[in-house]
User: Fold this.
Amino acid sequence: MATTTIDTTGATTEGCRYCWMCRQACPVGHVTAREPHTPHAWALTIESVKRGQLTWNPETVELLYACADCGLCRAHCATDRPLPDAIAAARAEVAAAGSALPVVYDLDARMKAHGNPYGPMAPAAAAAQGQTALFVGDAAQHFGASGLAAAMTLLEAAGVKPVTIAAGRSSGAMASSLGLASTASTLATTLLQEVAATGCRELLVLTPGDKWAFTEVYPDRLGIAWPENVKVIEVTTVLGEALADGRLTFKAASDVPAYAYHDPCHSPRIDRDSGTARRLLAAALGKDGARQLFWREGRAHPCGATSGLEFTQPAIAARLADARIADAKAAGAKWLVTEDPACLHQLGQSGAPDLQVRGLYELLAAQL
Amino acid sequence: MPRSFPAETLRALESVVGADRMSVTETDRLVYSVDAYWMPQMWLDRGARTPTPDVIVYPASTDEVASIVRIANEARVPVIPWGGGSGTQGGALPIHGGIIVDLKRLNRILEINEHSLTVTAQAGINGGQLEWALNDRGLTLPHYPASANCATLGGYLAPRGSGTISTKYGKAEDLVMNMEVVLGDGTIIRTPGVPNHASGPDFMRLFLGSEGTFGVITEATMQITRLPEVRLFRALLFKDVASGIEAGRRMMTSRLDPLVIRMYDPHSTRLLVKRVLGYELEGAYMIVGFDGFSDIAALQLQRALKTCDELGARDLGSEPGERWWNHRYDFYYPPHTLKLPAMFGTVETVATFDNIEKIYHAKKAAIEGQFGSMGVEYIGHFSHWWKWGASLYDRFLLKDAPADPKEAQALHDRIWDVAVATSLAHGGMINEHHGVGLKLHRFMRAQYGSAWPLLERIKHAMDPNGIMNPGKVGFEKTGE
Assistant:
């Protein structure tokens, strides 16, 4: 299994530089409305540098880091071209040359020092061994204590008692997106050691982004194989199965306003039943209040808390969050619900007094 | 940015859109120096740079577009509207520098009228996103070009685009009700609300095909329709192009109402149908499709199959037809699409049934005859059908193109000269749906003959100082 580098992604950028066919899906291009903020332009920029027509300078590097690495271009590509991997590889080259955005090196230092980009959070050691583990990660520990607790409550109600691992530590996906391949590999290796120490056969994840990290970033970008005997499963999938077979039931909710579900960042790029979270919400809150966002399911745009964009391009990240809020309002929703703690934080910062951003796990747990 | 671009013009533009909605960076200017036309791609690929804009602006309203055009008109600098940048004719290339007006911020849907079945939207809206919004309501804009994912509404209209189902629903120009346009002096006009009237000349049509040389389309109202109950497809194999064209002619002239008739010539069938769809066949591969109520569509399909059977077609069944529909755009994704360093060009045309087969054979003979020894291949399919004729979407392809860009360009232009001359000599048009742009600019006088001066007078009335997308659609830059 080989690491993805700028040398191995040439065929991708060469083909994508003059292909416009995923334009409709790109969230950054949508909110900035600039041709240079589109997949074809990122590929063209990378290829133009290779051909000596541009150089990696503050201007080109700024552009390179404007991609959200959300995976929508690849998800909408009829021939499944891994352009996000190629962009990450180009960033790795830029970062190794010392030409990346200054904030990238700050993040690298923080991830090396603390295991996460947010700052000191004493990473907890593996608590115990068990067949089922739950990856907590960085954002859930930093932003989402209540969400994590609610998820554990729901799992227990469904008859699942996982041991928690990697509390406060990043998966490595963000580091990979930022071009910090070495740091990403270190984080991945540490996580795999912890997974092995638990002896688990199922690793539950709170977010689609974590599933993407383990099933795609590790093997495809970092050249690190995920253990074949450990299945990566979203918590919502476990809860959805429990709901379907009657292990999980909810009491009737009252006074539920119109609500809409935000498919968390990275959702469209993984194999996922986008109906699961919606069915859980309908069971707990009722179907009458459910509203449909425009940017949903296979075309779900990210909220900006995507692969480090909130650090490298906070203005673009904020516009993505604003766009999600606007979408929810246009749908008539009063609650915007999602499960990814980084999404909840990012959307919550958008500041919309007439729209509440609510955690999926907390809402479900409240109806047990 | 070249030093010749007036600084006061830059300041004036900034006063309209603000510093954060304009760019003069080298990277941005490079991105806007290339579209889906082979020529600039080839130059860049071979290490040369192509003309870049002096500045890119991102207006958010029609008023801002009008202000930008007024400033450009006063300074006598070119204005080039930019939508998705996916045109194949070089129509949006800033060959004389100037101001690129990227219209993608004008991306709002203003009204969906489910009673009269119309949609009004700003011209910069992405075609795929517009379609998603309509589909959410069970509606569709029945213009399905291969560029739907990337082109804008304005880009549908400006070059008179056709889509996959134009055989039933017409071209983009047949679906437009009215438009808002900013003229070359900054005047904002709106065409009458409905297209079919007797209240004077239909001047809206002047902007369809003008590709930004008469003005900037900023808004349009389009006819839409409800998503059909069914779409039925069938694949057929004809022994040759002649029998397939005759089948298409009979379907189109016998009150059947096909959604699609698409027939690949034997070479395309061997090359593309095999590569993209996986079928290894000898002959001319045809897809026919019908939509609407299931019983009516089924009956139409049945009658169409009878016609094809009379002409000796082999019925390949519905699965290959459905497969083609579900993968119809796959042809345009890498690695399936034609790509550098090869040389290629789509020399498509349209003509009456009297002429279309003659054109196919004549172009095939001319291109293969004159350039075949150099390795140039000729392929084609018949993709858009009318009650009077059909379009021929034909291409030349040279896998081992000259490495020297000047040599490559010269050969490319020679092949184009032969292709266009052959189309014109046999009653064909120089283009059916990609537009003219830069690529076919030099053929417009031959196409229009004695009518060309009239078009030039109209251009002067619309754009007295020649600032609108100069060097395209046959209109030279003022002073040249």
Observations:
- The longest strand of chain B covers residues 389-398.
- The two ends of chain B are 23 Å apart (CA to CA).
